[in-house]
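Lab notes, practical 5.
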Amino acid sequence: MSFISVSYGNEDAKRLYDDLLVNYNKHRRPAPEPNKPINIKLKLRLSQIIDVHEIDQIMTCSVWLKQVWTDKKLSWNPHIYGGVSVLYVPYEMIWVPDIVLYNNADSNYNITISTKATLRYDGQVTWEPPAIFKTLCQIDVRWFPFDEQQCYFKFGSWTYSENLLNLEFLDGEARYELEMNENGEMNNITIVEEGIDLSDYYPSVEWDIMSRIAKRRTKNYPTCCSDGTYIDIMFYLELRRKPLFYTVNLVFPCIGISFLTIVAFYLPSRSGEKKDIIPATSIALPLIGKYLLFTMIMVSLSVLVTVISLNLHFRRPATHQMPDWVKWLFLKILPKILLMRRPIIIETDEAFRKFGHRRGELCENVIINRHERKVNCDSCRTTNMQINEQIQKLYRSPYVIKAFENVCFIAELLKKKDRDAMVNDNCEL
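Output from the prediction step:
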């Protein structure tokens, strides 16, 4: 006997969808019995290690979290529904376990894409949403750049204890060990050596994965939850940094400089200096002396010009005001000597500045008399145009006066923003 999988385009699938979810309660835990736990099988599929931030001690990864459980309320007979054996429904329409990442470094535990859950005719539900997790990871840089880091994902139910929800591994060869908890008690833990699936893993350019162990354990939380023990599954990632980049650009130059420093002690004590090689005379300066003097002056001027250039480049209107002689020298004289032209965007900003100036004059012409609640709009009136009594009352309205004040404030703010942007562009130029 074989059944075929169909989509919502099938009328039988539509009828099945309506029959399953018309009276379905997604807030009810689909356990076989009220006092029995529901089994949730978990699997983590790693897609990419996006970033390992050493300073913030946060690891960012793109993963797929596969969850499988059985809900008898979502089972059916395929013969009654035209051989439909698989149905895809939005996960918001059915009960899903509240599996959360305990060591989440980001306050948003959100699924990146609203995926659908897969329903089988025997009641098996499979849900594998993609997510980007930011986990706390203690970074030890003692042996940088030859360091190894161990990070982990800790998943568990936020609401249900072990008596109501049981977490298990979806696949993998498991072994059992005893481990001592914080209270000094021995607990049974389940270990899977290849706990993280790397079938769709995109290799990282900075890190190699050395091991990917997963552990299942139980834990008590007496300070907040005294209704029993809670199950969590921890997926460990042991990472080793790829040292080639740091070796070539950091380690080898440091070793070379240190080696040259040590070699200096092998020079003879009576070795002459370079100045003793050059004949001492006041009649003419040797060309090599002129070269060394010129090089020293060029290096000094280069450092001085660099300091001045960086100081001008990072100036902002909030902290400095560009003098007129600086504008004249760097924006008018030097560009002509160096055959440089100012960017077109600066000319556009100048046009906006002039427009903003006219816009400011328009706001200044709007004189608001708060005591008499009048607005002088003579500059806004056109000839041969009479304003009736209702419009005059509207102009005297406090709401209209407040609106004029807000418009003038926004206009002045935009004008100041345009002016500051133009000054920033001049400093960077």
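Observations recorded by the TA: DSSP finds eight helices and 17 strands in the chain. The CA atoms of residues 220 and 229 lie 5 Å apart.
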